[in-house]
Design a protein that fits this description.
The complex is a heterotrimer. By secondary structure, chain A is α/β, with parallel strands linked by helices. Chain A has 10 helices and 12 strands. Chain A has 2 domains: 219 residues, 3-Layer(aba) Sandwich (Rossmann fold); 70 residues, no CATH class. The longest helix of chain B is centred in the first third of the chain and has 37 residues. In chain B, 53% of the residues are buried. By secondary structure, chain C is an all-alpha fold. Chain C is globular. The relative contact order of chain C is 0.13. The chains are: A alpha/beta, B mainly alpha, C mainly alpha. Chains in contact: A-B, A-C, B-C. The interface between B and C is large, with 55 and 62 residues.
């Protein structure tokens, strides 16, 4: 098991109080595993991704532990976390289009970034990877503004994985791309894993159909908690949680983008996480809800590797 | 993802807790009150010869008197008035011109934009004070209103350019498209859809123009090209310099007017940064 | 890039045209015969001088000619370097009077602009997001940048000149001296130069420091900064990149501020009776020497245009985006 997350609680500080964006999430990611993380916006998936590498100023670790390769990951401590970043945990951000310093040639930026981490550039390896993602080698002498959107995306993917991290977090990296580019990006990520550039990966998206194409396991989150986690094929073919079922059935076919919009097809909205209600959080929107749902449903392993947090599962 | 008080309430919440904004107001409001109440506090004519010439501050004459026995406190209070008036009129006019040109250029684009942009750039590189020197010297400026008019006419370009850029980024948004599709007329789209969406920005632009106008007016007055009637803080500095207050050691003559201008403009600038933090969540300190 | 400079030069050319036209037009708004009224308001005592000037300006203004011909003549005179004759220093040509004053103004402006820009940016970048500096020292920046140039000049002249007696407060050099290239004279020049320089420097410094501080806070929130932090890059590297990017708008800002800085220099010179262009303007106004005033105006406009063009060149050298030809609109 590469990554082990136990009862992770992360809160956002706001004016009205703390928003419990992650409220007790536990899961693991194995060696070589690609975990797809899906759910509506506000379900906590982006918070989870950020927590594992760098919390922003408003986030606070409220409890839980994370371990990577058997060692504790000090995610609540920015300073102590720094040695792990890039080398052990890395990130492909949502904002790849603007992730590179606009006034530095890309090659120089990479050199300086690595130097500040006490590493030097392995030019041969870097060029091999550029070839792999079909970027010209002279790209290192260019400025980011000279690159197309797709090229920037691939460049950032190469930079982020340059130090062969154990865990790569890919946060909504496809949402700005067209369908064919999305697929190419997804294939590249799988290739990176297969070649050992990254050991395991968390692929965050609201597009469950895209997740299905690359993920080994899919984890569905709802309102700051885990709803269901299972091998990708199982999630799609035999979802057990009513939320997952509605999510899957609201997709007319694999390959449709913007699952998020379609989710408005599920009546109601997720509860506010400032003061979340007792019991199952999907209760108000759930067609199967019954008395027992006033109690919190614990995630139960209904089959090997298939966890569901629902009394009816 | 996060639930915070929304819209207006949120801005107000941060406004009331923003040290910079409050500090600016604490300086500005008393000066404003002083200026508004000038006739009550300082009596009629601030240029009247009322007391022993060149006397330092005393309990009776708080800021002392000039070489000629004018009460400096009275001049100061009336000067504040003029300063605020020049700021509001000059800054206001510049803001109006800047908005008109910025909105039109940014919204219409194309040839209109090219022409207006060229115009903006020309006025932008012309040194405003030098132009005002020529204009004022030849035409003679008698009233504060005329001075403010000329200042307004020369100091709008950077505002126009900033507003143009903002409009440019807003005009392709959904709500503007929607309005366009439903056949709403251009100026209505600008006033109903675009301007409200950058109202905080426009307000901050006005504040900067306000402060800028005050400083230009003060320089003109100091050179001796200010309004020939009445009194202003710049004119007080001009008189103090002209009649060698410096060499005579009459510090009470030249300190108050400069301090007044600095306090007003400084408070405006600080408020502006405070407002930026209020309106722009990224800048809030946590 | 050619397009970029082409546009810039077009703007500057048009600006010069506008400035000259203003210069030509404004006297015509004065009621009555401009030559007559100018001479009437001028303090020239010798009748011969008045006659000579009347002849000169009547031919210059050529009021009996059609307007376009008057305008053409005006330009022709301009290209001959003929800005008329000063009334204040009759019969010195205005061009000579100005050329004698320009070195003093440049000696104040260039060092104060460059040094304040450099130091202000450094300081502002250093203070940003460092709580104690941000909250204690930057308010001073706000006060400085809000200070009218002439007031700070007066305060310095009073405090360091008159009360402390360290620096002279009037003139470009001691009245007792004649200009020459001795160390003594140069030292004397420097002594007279110091206070006007410091007062210009301080006001401008405050503005740059605050501008940079605000700019760099935006840059530190930018995506590329967040990405670097996520990859554990050192704070130093992130700040260095942010500074580099924040400096670009500051270069544009320098171009925008030129007019204000020049205005500041003019009033500062007036306070110190420093023999530069500001002093000329005051004399021109007090002596109703409109030819001198107009000549000085044109000179300032040309100076600002040239400086703008230099800044444009620097910008292209510093910002790769203008060189690669994409997004070349440098504010």
């Amino acid at each position: 098991m590469t990554l082990r997350v136990d009862d992770l609680r992360v809160h956002y500080r706001t004016l009205r109080g703390e928003v419990k964006a992650l409220d007790g999430v536990s899961f693991g990611v194995g060696d070589g595993e690609i975990l797809g993380l899906a759910g509506e916006s506000g379900c906590g998936k982006t918070t989870l991704g950020k927590s594992l590498i760098r919390m922003d100023g408003r986030m606070r670790l409220a409890g839980g532990t994370v371990s990577l390769d058997g060692a504790e990951l000090p995610i609540g401590d920015d300073r102590r976390m720094n040695p792990f970043r890039f080398k052990r945990v890395s990130l492909i951000p949502q904002y790849s289009m603007s992730a590179m310093n606009p006034t530095r040639r890309i090659g120089r930026m990479i050199t300086e970034l690595l130097a500040s981490r006490g590493e030097s550039v392995d030019t041969a390896e870097l060029e091999r990877r550029l070839d792999l993602v079909e970027l010209p080698r002279d790209i290192l002498g260019r400025y980011p503004i000279e690159l197309s959107g797709g090229m920037k995306q691939r460049m950032v993917m190469v930079i982020s994985t340059l130090l062969d991290p154990s865990l790569l977090i890919a946060d909504e990296i496809t949402s700005a791309l067209d369908v064919s580019t999305q697929k190419a990006v997804a294939r590249t990520l799988v290739e990176f894993r297969d070649r050992g550039f990254v050991r395991s990966m968390i692929f965050i998206t609201h597009d469950i159909s895209l997740t299905y194409q690359i993920a080994d396991t899919i984890m569905v989150m709802y309102a700051g908690r885990l709803a269901e986690k299972a091998p990708a094929s199982v999630i799609v073919s035999e979802p057990r949680h009513p939320y997952t079922r509605m999510l899957i059935s609201s997709l007319p076919e694999v390959g449709v983008r913007h699952a998020e919009r379609r989710l408005s097809g599920i009546p109601g909205r997720p509860p506010a996480l400032l003061d979340p209600p007792q019991g199952c959080r999907f209760r108000d929107r759930c067609p199967l809800a019954f008395d027992r749902c006033a109690e919190d449903p614990p995630p139960i392993e209904v089959a090997p590797g298939h966890h569901v947090a629902c009394w009816k599962a | 993802m996060t639930a915070v008080p929304t819209g207006r309430n949120e801005a107000l919440y941060f406004a009331l807790r923003n040290g910079k904004l409050l500090a600016g107001l604490v300086v500005l409001v008393p000066l404003l009150v002083l200026a508004a109440a000038a006739p009550l506090i300082a009596g009629g004519d601030p240029n009247a010869y009322v007391a022993t010439p060149a006397s330092p501050p005393s309990a009776e004459r708080w800021f002392g008197t000039t070489m000629f026995g004018q009460d400096i406190f009275a001049q100061f209070v009336y000067g504040l008035r003029v300063t605020f008036v020049v700021g509001v009129l000059g800054g206001g006019l510049a803001a109006i011109i800047g908005m008109a040109i910025g909105f039109t250029a940014g919204y219409r684009g194309g040839l209109v934009d090219e022409v207006l942009n060229m115009l903006t750039n020309i006025v932008l590189v012309l040194p405003a004070l030098a132009v005002l020197l020529i204009v004022n010297a030849y035409l003679g400026v008698r009233s504060v209103g005329v001075q403010a008019l000329f200042i307004g006419l020369t100091s709008w370009p950077w505002a126009a350019r900033a507003i143009r850029a903002q409009t440019f980024s807003l005009r392709s948004r959904d709500f503007v498209d929607l309005a366009k599709l439903s056949g709403v007329r251009t100026w209505k789209i600008i006033t109903r859809e675009i301007a409200p969406n950058m109202s905080s920005y426009l307000f901050m632009t006005f504040i900067l123009l306000f402060g800028g106008s005050i400083l230009i007016a003060a320089s003109l007055d100091f050179i001796g090209l200010g309004p020939s009637e009445g009194v202003s803080l710049g004119l007080m500095l001009n008189n103090a310099a002209r009649w060698s207050a410096l060499h005579l050691g009459m510090w009470w003559w030249f300190i108050p007017p400069g301090a007044g201008i600095t306090a007003i403009v400084g408070a405006l600038y600080v408020m502006n940064v405070g407002l930026d933090e209020v309106f722009n969540p990224k800048l809030r300190e946590l | 890039m050619r397009r970029y400079f082409g546009r810039k030069l077009l703007v500057y050319g048009l600006t010069f045209l506008v400035a000259v036209t203003i210069n030509w037009m404004i006297p015509r708004f004065m009621p009555g015969d401009p030559v007559q009224s100018m001479l009437a308001r001028a303090n020239v005592s010798q009748p011969a001088a008045v006659e000579a000037m009347r002849a000169h300006y009547t031919s210059l203004f050529g009021l009996d000619l059609p307007l376009w011909e008057q305008y053409g003549n005006f330009w022709a005179a301009l290209f001959r370097g003929d800005l008329g004759t000063s009334i204040w220093l009759f019969p010195t040509p205005v061009t000579d009077v100005i050329i004698r004053a320009v070195p003093y103004t440049l000696a104040l402006l260039i060092p104060s602009i460059l040094l304040s820009w450099w130091a202000g940016n450094r300081f502002g970048a250093f203070a940003a997001r460092r709580r104690w500096l941000d909250n204690t020292v930057l308010p001073i920046g706000y006060v400085l940048t809000a200070t009218p140039y002439m007031w700070l000049a007066i305060l310095l002249a009073w405090g360091l000149g008159i009360v402390a007696g360290i620096f002279p407060v009037s003139g470009g050099y001691s009245f007792a001296m004649r200009p020459n290239w001795s160390w003594e004279f140069v030292g004397n020049l420097a002594l007279h130069w110091f206070l006007p320089f410091v007062s210009l420097f301080l006001v401008a410094f405050g503005g740059w420091a605050i501008g940079m501080r605000n700019m760099i806070i935006y840059e530190l929130e930018a995506d590329y900064s967040t990405y670097l932090s996520s990859l554990g890059a050192s704070r130093r590297l992130i700040r260095r990149y942010a500074f580099r990017n924040a400096v670009l708008p500051q270069i544009t800002g320098l171009a925008l501020q030129l007019g204000v800085l020049v205005a500041g220099a003019l009033v500062t010179e007036i306070v110190f009776s420093y023999p530069g262009l500001g002093h000329l303007i005051l004399q021109a106004i007090q002596n109703q020497d409109f030819f001198l005033l107009q000549g000085t105006f044109l000179f300032i406009v040309v100076g600002v245009l040239v400086a703008n063009f230099i800044i444009d060149i620097v910008y292209v050298l510093v910002d790769p985006r203008t060189r690669t030809g994409i997004g070349g609109e440098a504010a």
